[in-house]
Amino acid sequence: MTAAMAPTETTGSGLSALLRLSGPVVASRLGIMAMGLVDTIVVGRYSAAELGYHALAWAVTGVVLTTALGLLSGVQVMTSQAIGKGREADTGAILRRGLAYATWISVACALFLAVTGGPMLVAFDMAPGLAEGATLVLQVQAVSLVPIIVADAGLFWLEAHGRAIPGMVAMWLANIVNLIVNLWLVPGDNMFGVHGAAASAWATFASRLFLLVVLAVVILRWRRARELGVLSPAPRDPVAARAMRAVGYGAAVSYFIESLAFSAMAVFAGWISVTAVAIWAVVINVAATVFMVPLGLSVATSVLVGRAYGARDRPAMLASAGQGFGVTAAVLLIVSLGVWLFPEAIAAAYSREAAVVAGIASAMILSSLFFAADGLQVVAAQALRARSDIRAPAVIHIFSYVVVMMPLAWWLGVKSGGGVDGLIWAIIIASALSAVLLWGRFVALGRAPLTPPDAAPVSLPV
Q: What is the DSSP string of 234-287?
């Protein structure tokens, strides 16, 4: 590892650096999904119908949230590259620009969903009562977008500096808040008169607001905050601001396409039956929880690739990506085996209704086939963005998840009567295709010349 990387709090080289950073990042990402897991389990055990409302509201909200977080990915990439260039003192300005950007993005997203979310659900023409029941839940979830989007800008910045442990601790403290408020509000015997999925959405808001406050305290109390420029107004730098946004645009397109495609699966399930919606809610919740492991590994891989790219250290860049691939593949094969061996135990945790439990168990066995491919494709996409290849991941995601997965899922799941199993087969095929194309792209670029050290990120030819 180059000398330019020495000031960061994640030191070492090779696999040790990846594991040291990825451990708390993975734990933090699992904390994000633990909130959703708690919501789904508490609501599901309260009512299968309320679980359907929760799933449909999240299907829409999730697209907006993941797209917004994609827009903010430039905070992490630009911070990592600045560290690699030996310009740590510039990273405080990156954070301040990122927080300002996150604030107006979050407000715009919340207003958009609050106004259009309900009519959007009604337009999907699903089973009677589903859209109407999910609308209030979606509106509460829209409010909770503001604190989580702003908080994640700070979280990304801390992780790029190697300070993933404070973010992890803050995330799990927020989970405790979420669990307590869920158990209090969801049954309905509370002073506010809310219950079910809507009550769970308010619990999510409370926990996200708590997370924002804790992360703000962590950043402001860091002993290096002043020397990094966190406490000083960011100097006006249109070039740096555009570079940060450019990375975010490419990531946002990828995140939007993938989350939209997966949310379309919820709509397809709604066209099948109410039971199919409940089964799909569990499938996507488990898959998303598992996905947090490769997502965390992708963040660690991206940070190390970005630092190596900033330092123009080609061997370190390729080695970091290769180690990210190997660790991700190994971990997900173990996780997949566990899901494949114990599907009934997973199903029993989510529902008490026999038909739903049987459907979940069957779907879990099949779902274990796509975890590794889905994880490897996100690590590859993040590695490409870290080395300033912005356009290719978006193009590959559009092809894999829109051109291939969505029509295939409709055909296998709805048209041919394959049900939820048909939807899952479409995901398996699309994720494998995406992983192959993205890693092929990264390997091919390993022989391409690196851009000059001070150049802004640009899209290389696809």
A: PPP-HHHHHHHHHHHHHHHHHHHHHHHHHHHHHHHHHHH-HHHHHHHHHHHHHH
